[in-house]
Amino acid sequence: MKAWLNRWRRRLWQALLYRTAFGERTAQGAPLAHTRISPSTCIEGEEGLQLADHVFIGHFNFLDAAGGLRIDEGAQITNYVSIVTHSSHRAIRLMGRGYATHTGPAAARPGYIHAPVHIGAYAFIGPHSLIEAGSRIGKGAVVCAYAQVRGEVPDFAVVSGQPARVVGDVRTRDAVWLARYPELQEHYAAWAGALPSAPPAASPPPPT
User: Fold this and answer.
1) CATH number of domain containing 156
2) Separation CA 43–CA 45 (nearest Å)
3) Would you say residue 11 lies in a domain?
4) CA-to-CA distance for 10 and 142, rounded, in angstroms?
5) CA distances from 141 to 74, 146, 172 (A)
6) Is residue 36 assigned to a domain?
7) Is the pLDDT of residue 105 over 90?
8) Residue 10 above 70 pLDDT?
9) What is the pLDDT of residue 202?
10) Is a pLDDT exceeding 80 seen at residue 161?
11) Which of 8, 10, 54, 199 has an alpha carbon within 20 to 30 A of 206's alpha carbon?
């Protein structure tokens, strides 16, 4: 009996708190019928979030949109991802106790970082990764789990590590898959702009 109650308690908890459902709206109220955001994701500064349709944002993410966060169509943010558009890590050292008593705008504090983040169409952000202020993730890019991104990620790049570096190009494998499933070529070209011509690879790319 106890096991049965526990099972239903878990299902109820998941249904109420951690269930992602289709249908969101932009900060301006425009409907996004195919976008899903888990209720366990924390979004700060939501008025600065520019969200497209067909976006997926999974469980236990932290999105800081106060400095401007743009997420383009079809991007997927998995779980336990942090995206920040500001940082005080330098300013607190420079100002000490004066940081807490500063009365002007936060961005005016010496050393304070405040810059927007842009995630391109159909990019994939792996779990436990960090996207720092001022970063741009190109369309179709893959950010591997636990990566720390600072700066520019080229379109279609695979990045990994802390700090993240380019370790591959998704088009290498995309070309293989599209040759196997030619009926998908139209869908791919619709967002990517062209079909992939696989770039030469010095070593086998990581699975993507």
Assistant:
1) 2.160.10.10
2) 7
3) no
4) 32
5) 12, 15, 12
6) yes
7) no
8) no
9) 46
10) yes
11) 54
pLDDT digits (tens, 9 = 90+) for 36-46: 998 889 999 99
**Cis, peptide link before residue 105, omega less than 30° from 0:** no
Angle at 103 between CA 98 and CA 106, to 5 degrees: 85
**What residue type is 48 in one-letter code?**
G
As given in the structure block, the two tokens for residue 174 are 């995309």
Integer-rounded Cα radius of gyration of the chain:
20
H or E stretch at 119:
strand 117-119
Q: How many CB atoms lie within 10 A of CB 198?
A: 16
Is pLDDT at 150 greater than 80 in this prediction? yes
The answer, yes or no, to whether residue 3 has pLDDT greater than 80, is: no
The crossing angle, in degrees rounded to 10, of helices 171-180 and 185-192 is 150
Decide if 176 is inside a domain. Answer: no
Higher pLDDT, residue 103 or 190: 190
Enter the tokens of residue 114: 């405040």
Is 206 domain-assigned?
no
Query: For residue 36, how far is the Cα from the chain centroid?
Result: 13
Neighbour-count burial of 100, counting CB atoms closer than 10 A to its CB (0-12 exposed, 13-18 middle, 19+ buried): exposed
Q: Which residues, including other chains, have CB under 8 Å from residue 85's CB and lie 6 or more apart?
A: 45, 48, 64, 65, 66, 67, 68, 69, 114, 115, 116, 117, 133
- Range of 119's domain? 32-169
Q: How many domains does the chain have?
A: 1
